Amino acid sequence: MFKINDNYLKLPGSYLFSNIAKKVAAFQQANPDKEVIKLGIGDVTLPLAPKIIDTLHEAVDEMGHAETFHGYAPDLGYEFLRTAIADNDYKSRGCDISADEIFVSDGAKCDSGNIQEIFSIDNKIAVCDPVYPVYVDTNVMAGRTGTYDPVAETWSDVIYMPCTAENNFIPEFPKENPDLIYLCIPNNPTGTTITKSQLQDWVDYANKIGAVIIYDAAYEAYISEDDVPHTIFECEGARTCAIELRSFSKNAGFTGTRLGFTVIPKDLKCGDITLHSLWARRHGTKYNGAPYIIQKAGLACYSEEGKAQLKEQVAYYMNNAKVIKEGLTNAGFTVFGGVNAPYIWLKTPDKMTSWEFFDYLLEKGNIVGTPGSGFGPSGEGYFRLTAFGSHENTLRAMERIKSL
Amino acid sequence: MFKINDNYLKLPGSYLFSNIAKKVAAFQQANPDKEVIKLGIGDVTLPLAPKIIDTLHEAVDEMGHAETFHGYAPDLGYEFLRTAIADNDYKSRGCDISADEIFVSDGAKCDSGNIQEIFSIDNKIAVCDPVYPVYVDTNVMAGRTGTYDPVAETWSDVIYMPCTAENNFIPEFPKENPDLIYLCIPNNPTGTTITKSQLQDWVDYANKIGAVIIYDAAYEAYISEDDVPHTIFECEGARTCAIELRSFSKNAGFTGTRLGFTVIPKDLKCGDITLHSLWARRHGTKYNGAPYIIQKAGLACYSEEGKAQLKEQVAYYMNNAKVIKEGLTNAGFTVFGGVNAPYIWLKTPDKMTSWEFFDYLLEKGNIVGTPGSGFGPSGEGYFRLTAFGSHENTLRAMERIKSL
């Protein structure tokens, strides 16, 4: 008789955003006349930029003729895209990353969920708390996290690094040495960042203890301040301890188009074995490449026209972030993030729990946000709003919050 | 100090098709004047059908306007596509599969590699021999296959079901009871099939011993004979023992466009736990949906126009299969498959090994095929050619083989 992977049963409840979607659907069904503004999930609202649309059309036409048709993509992604990534995201910043250290994929969510597969089940992970749930949940599914404490809402074999207002949302080196360290900078969900020298400390620490940093830089395009690292490979020594995950979802609005990449330097080794070779094997065995037309669209993001148009999109969302930050501050809230990231992290008022504030905001303001506690125990008492709504909706949401 | 997933190191050599690609690249570099005809990897050559191209353009335009832009897709795929699949691939054949039992993905390779994750590590798998390498390799990576015997080229904890000319390529029930049974029908690599009543026997067997059949029907569109099942859900009792994997790669030429789906009936349970719920959790946590524009292209495959155009494409390839089958037979080869599948499985001449014949065919005929032994020990002495080349190249390949 077959048996299931019991680790799945340990997962408490369903995936955070599925939960929220169900709550919102129930509210809308009960209140069909209310117009709900969604500032919850990090989904973009601006259409794809004109240069990307043009490129998609061109690539679609190529697929319609035998001479220019493209079948299976190369395992690691098309050379044209990997070269553009290496040149624009790394070499232009003085970072030593070559095209063949880049693995193109269908997005950072998949990569951040799958990357743990190439590591031993015995490895101990460290995560910031609060944290993007995928990092922890995928390790639960793999059986790497021990037992769940439903009261503390923590796993026995996970090292949590609290990031709260008290420590300025900067994770501290844990007492116990981790093997894998997940860092997301600029941070989801808090919208906060660390400086380049603080990240250098983490790189030095990882090299010292023999840990790998899984560095999620999905929000890199939103960095506005000088001293915030755009990639971990700006730090000395990162080539021997870091894997970087990147996405086209937030800088180019590809949430429904799907494209991302992972960087694994060939110097990152366990004994003689490069992690690059393991991930290449996984890619070759379990993945069949991102669609050609979408890799072409990715390339368009690096053209001069594409860059200019995407810069405008980011500016549009960051203007929303400013509106939210100012609106909430004026309404008396304590607010973090929103300067180098499209997320605003606020303290819930009147000692409400995060879910209490979720219900309150949905019922009274008809606004959807994300409860901080959904991202981990240290997120309790916080709440996330995103800048990805339309400008009109963002303004209206702030009007509603003002009059609550 | 971090440790890697040691199971990866147990994998012998690299992925079959990567190996072939390297050999071919080396040959072409050494012989730049020789024109190589590729009938090896199962990649299509016809461009996407006009209806699909038109639909892609329309969907791209939708992505360019805020009112019709699509961000994150629903976890399980868009309702429009899942309904079209349920209606066309199942209900129209009298099979009781509903839209919410269908999970849209970026292809059957990913699904067939990932599906093992929802099962216990202790489960024992059974595979046909020869077999599509992904089934075995992904179980190796998970640590489910025991130790490798490099002489026999088998894993200690895998049950092999030889499929050779001796048993008409029909797998027999193994002596030891498996927990998971991989069946690919029409078969890759042999191009052979089983009848509906033979498949019913497998369904009855799986229900009796409490096994799950992972049924890969990627080549369903190529079935030309009446008595071959188009889906396992034509069999009575399949809802309690079967998962079906389907692809748009071969029926619609989506190898570089990427779309597939997995069907998990809600009646398939381990105790009270539905496998549907586990796969839904995996999809929600580790996957972010297939691109909107490509799901729309999938929908176009089910339009009357799309169906007619795809039928023509399949006929084109099956005409190639006929050319290969007849060409090889006339040249004195013993040949199987090619009637309900785009694969031709031939016996190597003069007791050559599969790789010897690979080298011989590449060097003397400048034709690339796939060595049967790359699919498992019982594939030794066989060789696979595919019907996915252009008709001109297929004819030329047969000319070359005739004059060898």
Q: Summed up, what is this model?
A:
The structure is a homodimer of 404-residue chains. With 404 residues, chain A is of the alpha/beta class.
List the helices and strands and how they pair.
Two copies of one chain form a homodimer.
Chain A lengths: L6 H4 L5 H15 L6 E2 L11 H14 L15 H12 L11 E4 L2 H7 L10 E5 L3 H10 L5 E2 L4 E2 L2 E5 L17 E5 L11 H14 L2 E5 L25 E6 L12 E4 L5 E2 L2 E2 H12 L5 H9 L3 H27 L4 E3 L5 E5 L6 H12 L1 E2 L1 E2 L10 E5 L4 H12 L2
Parallel strand pairs in A: 1-15, 3-6, 3-7, 7-8, 8-9
Antiparallel strand pairs in A: 2-10, 4-5, 9-10, 11-12, 13-14, 14-17, 16-17
Task: Describe the 3D structure.
Chain A contains 12 helices and 17 strands. By secondary structure, the first copy, chain A, is of the alpha/beta class. A 7-stranded mixed β-sheet of chain A has the order 2-10-9-8-7-3-6, sandwiched between helices. Chain A has a 4-stranded antiparallel β-sheet with strand order 13-14-17-16. Chain A has a two-stranded parallel ribbon with strand order 1-15. Chain A is globular. Chain A starts with 6 loop residues before the first helix and ends with a helix. At the A-B interface, α3, α5, α6, α8 and α9 of A face α3, α5, α6, α8 and α9 of B.
